[in-house]
Amino acid sequence: MPRAPRVNLPDIAQHVVQRGNNKQACFFSEEDYVLYLSKAKEYALKFEVDIHSYVLMTNHVHFLLTPRKNNGVSLFMQALGRFYVQYINRTYERTGTLWEGRYRSTIVGTDAYFLQVSRYIEMNPVRAKMVLKASDYKWSSYQHNALDKNIELITPHACYMALGKTDEERKFCYCQFVNKAIPEKLLTQIRDSTKKSWALGDKDFIFKIEEKLNRRLSAVHDYQQAHNH
């Protein structure tokens, strides 16, 4: 059965996940993390993609980003993934694949869902019990969005900017938001949407995107609700 084409719409955020093959590690040293982020910045500029949030886990990565042209995310992920595989194979004298097939992605709509996905991404190390607090994890955009580190890779989204009038206000509000527990139902919704390439948003958002693309981008129940709205 052929795969459905990716949903790549300009100016609509996407949550992207790329996993290591067979859940194997993708990062082996601090230099690996640093280089990956450096190349992410380079390719984000080249392919006109704004990165709002990210986390680099041991065996997978998450991005929340917005392309400024139709195929920006695909070009960005392909270039970054290809470069990094070549780097790892050369550095560690290995061969073969590093990533688990294609990256997974979902488009993210509405202000509420955008910040929820950003929180979901940055709380990954806490849910994985790698650290006690998001602030304890080095390889995450939380260091920029909530703390004092300036990460040039990050472009703030309008939803984030609306949290306050100053950097201090925004960081404080974001920190308060991220450190509240994510409801289990929402966790499942985010995971399912990314795994199955559904749209993540309210009914109006899903309905508009489905009409635009003439394809279903939600669970059957949600899809019927959206079209009866």
Number of domains: 2
Mean pLDDT across all amino acids? 90
Number of helices: 10
The low-pLDDT segments are: 220-229
The CATH topology of the largest domain is Alpha-Beta Plaits
Explain how this protein is built.
α1 packs antiparallel against α2 and α9 crosses α10. It contains ten helices and four strands. By secondary structure, the protein is α+β, with helices and mostly antiparallel strands. A hairpin with a 3-residue loop joins β2 and β3. The C terminus is likely disordered. The chain has a four-stranded antiparallel β-sheet, sandwiched between helices. It has two domains: 183 residues, Transposase IS200-like (Alpha-Beta Plaits, 2-Layer Sandwich); 32 residues, no CATH class. 46% of the residues lie in helices and 12% in strands.
Provide a compact summary of the structure:
This protein has 229 residues and is an alpha+beta fold.
List the helices and strands and how they pair.
Blueprint: E1 13-19, H1 30-46, E2 49-56, E3 60-67, H2 72-91, E4 104-108, H3 111-122, H4 124-127, H5 142-145, H6 158-161, H7 167-178, H8 184-196, H9 203-213, H10 220-227
Antiparallel strand pairs: 1-3, 1-4, 2-3
Helix pairs in contact: 1-2, 9-10
Q: What are its keywords?
A:
229 residues; alpha+beta; Alpha-Beta Plaits; 2 domains; four-stranded antiparallel beta sheet; 10 helices; 46% helix; 12% strand; disordered C terminus
